[in-house]
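Lab manual, section 2.4: Encoding a predicted structure.

Procedure: take the sequence of the chain (237 residues), apply the prediction step described in section 2.3, and record the output as structure tokens. A sample record is shown.
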Amino acid sequence: MAAAAAAVAPLWQAHGGRPRSYGGVYDHLYLDIYPVSMRFGSYRHVPNVQSLRPVPFDAVADDGRAPFVAGDRPLVYLTFGTVFNDTGLFASAMAGIARLDIDVLVTVGPAADPAALGPVPPNVRVERYIPHTAVLPHCAAVVSHAGSGTFLATLGVGIPQLCLPQGADQFINARQGAAAGAALALAPGEASADAIGDAVGRLLVEPGFRSAAGRVRTEIEGMPSPDDVGAILEGLW
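Recorded output:
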């Protein structure tokens, strides 16, 4: 953000303005959907912060889709969102976790082809997309890239997760989730099939991860709802 501010400073000056700290991005109210325990670093550069509870948005909730039905065994959800769908990482993750006595749901993203993953073990189901609101309540654990949508939605229902960050803010999310005890994290060079399987096995049997995820869930539930924040914003005008 500091580098971006330096890049746009000449634009401020060209229009007779005084360059603003961080390009003026934080001059106004900042809505933050992260609970305090998941925030990283100092917020000294953000003078006005309003917490906003993260609520998963299901754009296809009423499309006639049949309800998701889980089996009798623990369900582990494997997803890398809509951008970071590396078939090699999917293969490693499936090989690691499918050997456990669990059911595995894999979503490859709306633009990807489930057939690209090739033959899968009998306890693995592959789909393009299932809304978080439909699947997360049934899960025992989640394996993902730790993108903000999946990461926060998983914490919002108090489920432990394995973070396999690939880019962007995912490394920060993974670090914060692990620091809170609600997640395990494997860097790209560490995410072998065996390491992924061992980590998921721990999430399923060690109660501390679910307890920590439950604490973050309670924290999220205590954040102001979108309706509450909408009323706050209306009061500012």
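Check your result against the sample. The chain has a mean pLDDT of 88.
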